[in-house]
Amino acid sequence: MRAALMYQAGDVRVEDVPDSRIKHPTDALVRITASCVCGSDLHPYHQMTAENGPARMGHELIGIVEDTGSEVSTLKKGDLVVSPFAVSDNVCEFCRESLQTSCSHHEANFWDGIVDEGGQAEAIRVPLADGTLVKLPVAPDSALIPSLLTLADVYGTGYHAAKLAGVKPGYSVTVIGDGAVGLLGVLSAKRLGAERIVLMGRHQDRTDLGREFGATDVVAERGEEGIAKVRELTGGHGTHAVLEAVGHMPAYEQAFGVVRPGGVISRVGVPQYEDAPIGFGSLFRHNIRLAGGPAPVRAYIDELMPAILDGTVNPGKVFDATTDLEGVPTGYRDMDERKSLKVLVRP
Amino acid sequence: MRAALMYQAGDVRVEDVPDSRIKHPTDALVRITASCVCGSDLHPYHQMTAENGPARMGHELIGIVEDTGSEVSTLKKGDLVVSPFAVSDNVCEFCRESLQTSCSHHEANFWDGIVDEGGQAEAIRVPLADGTLVKLPVAPDSALIPSLLTLADVYGTGYHAAKLAGVKPGYSVTVIGDGAVGLLGVLSAKRLGAERIVLMGRHQDRTDLGREFGATDVVAERGEEGIAKVRELTGGHGTHAVLEAVGHMPAYEQAFGVVRPGGVISRVGVPQYEDAPIGFGSLFRHNIRLAGGPAPVRAYIDELMPAILDGTVNPGKVFDATTDLEGVPTGYRDMDERKSLKVLVRP
Questions:
Q1: Do A15 and A130 belong together in one domain?
Q2: To which protein family does this belong (chains A, B) (predicted)?
């Protein structure tokens, strides 16, 4: 079968790989009908060394169940399913607490950590299929597929940021980053009742979509200038919540620059740093809280799907380009060059 | 009048200083009847340079109102009052949100930031007296004074740690530090319903008091060994909440070593560092949250006082020595050498 492989930074190829197949009785084999490239795929696209390649890529997918292991009980051949970016059993103590990204099952993993499988491919072996996969009540060619695909990662991740930030009616929120996660953080904050949503981003086509999703203000400036602008918009105090959807240090520095005393910085951009300021001069003095991590999107799918199915929200608008599998390398390049916001892949 | 002054690290003296007196119409003049030395006073006792001295010391006090400015409306001469370690107007938007340590009034400050006043003295000028001071319904010589004095800082601070950590019935909690704040963090966690409370501390007289306050386990080991011990006690996963009541980097490292996935590290020890690990390898991977800061103890006094008055709790047990004002320098030395846990001062 065909699949995307990253050889090293900047080098993505689509090649023949061994067919995915059932290995364990709890596996399902899924024929992928929709997948995509993630903003977080751009981190290795910038940094990966040749020794770490070639690596299978892609962690967001919708597909049709083609085969199931003998112990799979909730799925059958022909079901259309969505897979979160992390595999989990959905029954351990952490999964029961809605923290599926810390599932304690020995097969639990991020797709990015499962070496022989990936979502940017024709098919995939899904471990712990009963726990991981969620059935979709639509046809594979439904117009809702792009929005439903965001449940695999970016919508659930934006929602996680807003939930952990405790966004509620009347809150003011700053969203740092105008990528798909940031924009869906805006949508999530709006749905949770935020009164004021300041989107920090520099790409007007994206921030326009952010306004459509609920942003009340857009700040294009960055660094000290951007911080001053947000403070100016908020009576000098900053916002109750900051959703940090980038992962680089300057974004974190902006976050503690614009957060209100007693507020929360909620990080869902994968940090590209380990040490960062958290002492008296940054977080401690004004009781700023820090939250975030890999989103347990599995926990949010049931909650978020109805408003997609009834058309209330359309998070799939973050996809502004579609390609087949052979076009995946171009998709990476276009996203890296900011020509595309997020590329949908139809294998 | 007599007052304690710190000249530099290790050098505390009691000297004559100008009498405190009313300066603004919102001030009160308070004759101090009980004060104390704080664990956080030991930070300058270790680090202060001569250029920063001499500095007035002491931020926890009970006393009798001796005079009030013309605009003070809720207090009168003869009232016995307790002062939080921070002065606040108690009416601004942050105070109304119970974040008095971020009060936006221009006179709001920590006592440690008000240069000509201090609690280790015969008297004190209290700015924003109506907002800051809380009346005590006991006599100045009541046996409850030590416990009521903990409302000025250490009990409220331990309680803040437990509240921000979201401690609730069934929770497991690790408390790092067996100083007064750590021990009152134990008491607070117990009162909030924690099921298991692991106290990390090395001084048996203190950890014995910790057990009396509600600790179910004591871990004397530190660093990797201490982390392993706590993990062993908690099925390998760590505890839902960690109250960090020290402020040094090794305590923070212990904190993220013993916290459970999805858990909270709540810091009330004043950080003696600015940068610290918060990336994928420490907090992010398992959605560890970070909370804490200077406790708005003013917000907790009304809540915590009744159980002191009716004898349900006795946080004053953290005082294991009493001195007059002239004995303050010895009090610092004894606390620094761990001969005393916390020294009560009766001017």
A1: yes
A2: Belongs to the zinc-containing alcohol dehydrogenase family.
